[in-house]
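Wait, can you check?
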Amino acid sequence: MSLRISLMLLVLTTLLFSPTTTPPTTAQVDPCAGVITVPAAECAALIDLYNATAGATWTNRSNWIAPDVAPCAWYGVTCANGRVAELRLPANNLRGNLPASIGRLNALTVLDLRANALLGPVPPSVCLLAASLPTVDLSYNGLATARRDVRACLDSLDPDWAATQLMPPSNVQPILIEGAQITLNWQPAPYQPPGAFYEVGYSRELEGPFTLHGRTADATATSYPLNGLAPGAIYFVSVRTVAPPHAGNATELRSVAASLPITTRGATTSLLIVYFPADNDLSSYIPLVTERLRQGTRLNPNVQVVLFSDGNRLNDTLVSRIAAGVVTPTDAVQTRWGRRELNSADPNVLAWFLRYARATLPAAERTYVALMGHGVALTPELEFGARPNGTAPRAIIPSLNSATIPALPKGLDATPDDVTDRGYLSTVGLGRALAAATDNGANPFDLIFFDQCFQGNLDTLYEVRRAATMFIASPNYAWLAAPYHQYLPLLAPTASLDAIAGGIMARYQRNLDETHPNVIFAVRQADLESVAAATSALGAALTQAVNAGVRQPITTAMANADYVDTTQCGRQNLKLAPPDELIGLGGLAAALATAFGPGDAYGVSAAAASVQSVLEQVETSVRVGSPHMAPDEFWAYRDNVTVLAPLPPNSPAPIAWRSTIYTADAPFTATWAPDPSIPATVVSSLAFVRDGQWDEFLAAWYAADRPATVGEWCRYIPPTLVAEEDAEGLPLTAVPTGLGALRLSWPSAAAEDVAAYSVYIDGPAEISWTLADALGPERTGVVLRDLIPGATYRLRLVAQDADGMTRAVSPEVSAIAPAEERVYVPLIQ
């Protein structure tokens, strides 16, 4: 693991193995209130520095934040012309990170912070001081930066600043993993003051507390045997550099930690089966997912991975086996099917792969399944025919049968599950595939992770309820974070399923930010069946109320419940409200209990309370915020399991289309809303519709008969663009290069630690930023083809490190795809 990745991952463990100092809260009265001797912004910046560096423990903090004492009288602060001109705090026991607000002190002529315990990344705002700072001394701390522009700025301010910064060793990796010992290897820290050494610690929890295992003799060491460990257990290992007092710094200094999770070898093995049907707009993610799985197997020798991937090109369906950091492609597809292109939306393909993968490691103690890609929520089994005149809906579709779906409006790659075959996988088909792979539930998987949107729906989970002991799913958008290199170490032989599920959810959330609001939850099979039974009882009670003419409490409850966005089939309504068709079950139950009141004649309140009670057993993780594709909206959705919502009774069929086919009397014909000339048949109903009573409530709710309709459903996963605060700028140019083609170019070595470039595009066929291509770090350009001629596209380039975090990002660039073929030739004079 690189030094910069270590700094990014473990800033929370800055003070491991030493007492944690928590700065006291500042006085309730604002120390800068009424200050007129310096600008308020500069006073606030000084307060930020004090709080960020444990000011209460400074060696000298005379007058700092004291009442009625102006900043110009604080220790180390000198003012001139009504501005903070000098800040001298050398060897004053400043411990912590430099705050970004230090850039507001842009009248400084002297900044002396040498010989303290300042750690972590230097905020880019320091460069705002460059115009006025002739004297800067940051020596003998533990500061670093991954940004080339910040490094250049610091080099101009303090040319030898980096020479004395205490860093942890870099590229910490296990070279041998045994039952009781992990042998670590690394590259020594570049700066090694007299007496320096490395401390190695470990914890069984990601956030600690960490236990000190031992230390090396000196800082020239390149390895360490971490022994005395429990076999088959996960450890979070941390390595930091320690410098005792020396001539440059009179206090002991500990660097930030380089850290990574590692699982010791146990007596049993586990199997992770990953199914990635990316024959759509997710195709570019296949190399990233494969690499992360490879990295993960290096950190957990107890897990073997079997990966199915299908990209958006012909003959690219592949099954790979991954173990001990080695990816081995197989000929399993060709051997079984006699061809190299499969319809990854075919239930028979999924069932075959799951059985094949299980057979590769029949002695596995545990078997986990990750189903990636686009999710559809509840979708019955459908068949489509040709138009009455015999023509296919689009020329690109050679034929139509039960395994294909007509292209939806705009021809979005994000809409069908398999672009090459125009196939989609219904909820019923998914259940059929998992039933075949588990002997109808007699041989269930230990855990199924739906790394897909909308699969936290009760109908979906009920359809596959017998296929696993535990399920992880999201009721709304499952943003494609895909940190499988962080998931794999969690699959320790000694870990419980509850601990593994909780760990996966925690790592999922750690890789996102407030621009990716979401819910992810884990539910056991037994609890899932209890949720279904309670929901069915609630449906029965609501049916009685509706049949008795009681509707207003239901309408009130619906207005007070939370919906999941399901109308994102283009730039539509991104509010969490009708016409969205999925609604949070827990929130709806709470709203119904309130609207009906205690002891209602129909038992709705009691049934709703029962639903709430069983949902308390579902472990849930919530993140609220404003989604990046709709920054003006705030999503505070907190429910886990979702159900089909009763929309306003007069909702037209194409709007509330799922409810029109949410019946148990299949087969029956339906109208294909995007193109009514195409006959559609619902050939199989959902299991919960057949077994439960929620459908009976919806049938009573929509009093008027409505034609059975198949409308649009959306499976788009917006990309995860989680940028570090110190991500630097990245120049990007776009020029036309032929019909519907643009050439993108950027300079080489745009940032340190670049492991890959990601090209994002937003145009008429996208709802927001979509990954167009993933490229190696050596690339400096790419040609985007098959764009809509004459259409305007927004483009961005993101440089990511090996952990998938953004290190550099370009400004948004707009370009028009050429509407005619042109040849560009050099001008010769």
Summary: Residues 1-27, 391-403, 823-827 have pLDDT under 50 and may be disordered. The two ends are 53 Å apart (CA to CA). The first helix runs from residue 3 to 9. The chain is about 20% helix and 25% strand.
